[in-house]
Design brief:
Elements: E1 5-9, E2 15-17, H1 20-23, E3 30-34, E4 40-44, H2 45-56, H3 63-74, E5 77-79, E6 86-88, H4 91-97, E7 104-110, E8 113-118, H5 119-134
Antiparallel strand pairs: 1-7, 2-6, 3-4, 3-5, 4-8, 7-8
């Protein structure tokens, strides 16, 4: 389970530091892919396999399902932590997430996945989410 919010920067080679408390679960490698709202998702191999199975079960006859599968799989790359606890973010994923070289990034724990955000985008997403959460007054069953 990944929890918390951490500030880092993307270095000049397109690498991002993964918070030390997340690294143990990524020792066997991970997969980085596109996430919703222009973030990047980092999944353990186990979580990636589970997600892949869910995606494979989506109907190929449904246009939205095909688009989701294409985005998720075509953007996915296998990755490993380097000796400094960093992962490499390929150019196509940096472009998708609006993260440039030397930009500030926010790495968040989001339960079973790690999300990597442009700090500018994260600020807006978090503000919107906080406002919505603070004003939830109805529980749907």
């Amino acid at each position: 389970m990944f929890l918390g919010e951490y500030k880092h920067s993307m270095d000049s080679k397109g690498r991002v530091v993964i918070p030390s408390k997340f690294r143990k679960e990524l020792q066997q490698g991970c997969v980085v892919t596109k996430g919703l709202d222009n973030c990047l998702q980092v999944l353990t191999k186990k979580n990636w396999n589970e997600e892949s199975e869910r995606m494979a079960s989506l109907p190929s006859t449904d246009k939205t399902s095909r688009q989701i599968k294409r985005a998720l799989f075509s953007g996915a790359v296998d990755s490993n932590l380097d000796s400094a606890g960093r992962i490499q973010i390929p150019e196509n994923l940096r472009n998708y997430s609006e993260i440039g070289i030397n930009d500030d990034v926010t790495v968040t724990g989001s339960g079973p996945v790690i999300e990597i955000w442009s700090s500018k985008v994260w600020k807006k997403i978090q503000d919107d989410s906080d406002k919505a959460f603070a004003n939830i007054n109805e529980v749907k069953e």
